[in-house]
Amino acid sequence: MKSATLQYANALADIALEQGAADPVLKQLSDFNAAYEESPELRTFLGSPAIKREDKHGVIEKLVARLGASRIMRNFLFIVVDNQRTPLLPQMLEGFQQVLQQRQGLAEADVVSATPMNDAQKSQLQQSLEKLTGKKIHAKYSQDPTLLGGALVRIGDTIYDGSLRNRLNQMRGRLGAE
User: Fold this and answer.
1) pLDDT digits over 82-117, tens only?
2) How far apart are alpha carbons 157 and 71 in whole angstroms?
3) Contact status, residue 38 vs residue 125, Cβ threshold 8 Å
């Protein structure tokens, strides 16, 4: 992630967490980003150096009011626009989500299994992952029948491969080494 994007995400997280408004600010930034991405006119208007700063602030004020967003969000958007960083809003949203998760001790896990997992299996896997990472895990589950058996878990950049194919490959490697 670009350092400028990360700086904005960290600054917003500092303020949102300090004021106990992390979840509302995340939703507001997400809503504004959706409006920004859906409207080529808004992107052009906010990104144009020919348009006065006060006019951009006026449009942001109206959008913030329509979205029911906070002063935190309004001030953040003013800074983003004033520094001509509006094209980075989608990355700022992603960075903000990651920074919040990291600071709150949360982690997203993508779990791919060969067959659908029952609730007991999901619960046991989640407990194991939380113990392993030391973080609260929010897991998303999907199936891939090509795995043969077991599961593949991705948390951030780390992959935990508990698939049957991986176990067979490891066994094959050990047998070949002997």
Assistant:
1) 999 999 999 999 999 989 988 888 888 899 988 898
2) 34
3) no
